[in-house]
């Protein structure tokens, strides 16, 4: 299976390291300044492709939705996609942290409120591009309004 990292064969990728850490190493190797358009485009593409790699692309499979519920520690895993979506609407997690949970095997960081998630996301510069998330039903359910 092709991944984002296959586009950079000269980069020694650690598939179990946090995504942001790996991406920053790649950006340094490629000479992308954090403020550049290229950096931002590649970071968005990296997140999108890594999410698809970790969670799959078939948004119509109940098993995928249930796996996401398990990963974010929904107490009772629902029996339908609709119920999974409803359960996930009540969970405050950063999308990049969700990816890292799959990559590293560590529990995903849950936030007690939307306000706490917004603050954390801004401080750590882990803002998943809205346009990219809207193209994926798994991600769309996790979107929150970051800027009021």
The tally of structural domains comes to 1
What's the Cα radius of gyration?
A: 15 Å
SS-based class: mainly alpha
Count of runs of 4 or more consecutive helical residues: 8
Mean pLDDT: 88
Order of helices and strands: HHHHEHEHHH
Largest sheet: 2 strands, antiparallel
* Overall shape: globular
What helical percentage do the residues reach? 40-55%
User: What is the straight-line distance between the termini?
Assistant: 39 Å
Portion in strands: under 5%
How many strand segments?
A: 2
* Physical arrangement of strands within the biggest beta sheet: 1-2
Instruction: List the uncertain runs.
Output: none
How would you describe this structure to a colleague?
Helix content is 52%, strand content 3%. The protein is mainly α and 148 residues long. It has one domain (4-140). It has a two-stranded antiparallel ribbon with strand order 1-2. The protein starts with 18 loop residues before the first helix and ends in an 8-residue tail after the last helix.
């Amino acid at each position: 299976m092709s991944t984002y990292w296959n586009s950079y064969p000269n980069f020694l990728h650690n598939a179990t390291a946090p995504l942001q850490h790996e991406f920053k190493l790649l950006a340094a190797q490629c000479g992308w300044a954090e403020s550049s358009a290229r950096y931002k485009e590649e970071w968005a593409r990296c997140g999108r492709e890594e999410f698809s790699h970790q969670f799959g692309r078939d948004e119509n499979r109940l098993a995928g939705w249930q796996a996401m519920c398990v990963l974010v520690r929904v107490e009772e895993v629902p029996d339908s996609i609709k119920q999974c979506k409803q359960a996930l609407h009540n969970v405050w997690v950063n999308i990049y942290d969700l990816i890292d949970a799959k990559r590293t095997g560590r529990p995903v960081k849950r936030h007690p409120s939307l306000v706490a998630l917004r603050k954390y996301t801004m401080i750590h510069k882990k803002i998943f591009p809205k346009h990219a998330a809207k193209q994926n039903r798994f991600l769309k359910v996790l979107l929150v309004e970051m800027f009021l």
